[in-house]
Design brief:
By secondary structure, the protein is an alpha+beta fold. It contains two helices and four strands.
Length: 73
């Protein structure tokens, strides 16, 4: 299934998380006490912000600019 950023932004939060888990994992990093994982969903990317102490995902941040992949390189 091909999904656009527009489609993703109009999904429910639950559906967004399900789609992200099906994406291609690109890498992770640690910043301000959070683990941030990056996934490719074809035409865009999504960062998943995970709070290890609370054991929960805080938020998702989709983006399209390749420059924003720099922290994972």
């Amino acid at each position: 299934m091909v999904i656009t950023l527009y489609d993703f932004m109009h999904m429910s939060e639950t559906d967004q998380y399900e789609i992200v888990w099906k994406g291609t994992f690109l890498g992770d990093r640690h910043d301000n006490g959070l683990w941030i994982q990056c996934y490719s969903l074809g035409s865009f990317y999504v960062e998943l912000f995970y709070d290890q102490q609370a054991n929960q995902v805080q938020r998702l941040r989709p983006f399209t600019r390749v420059e924003q992949l720099a922290p994972y390189l």
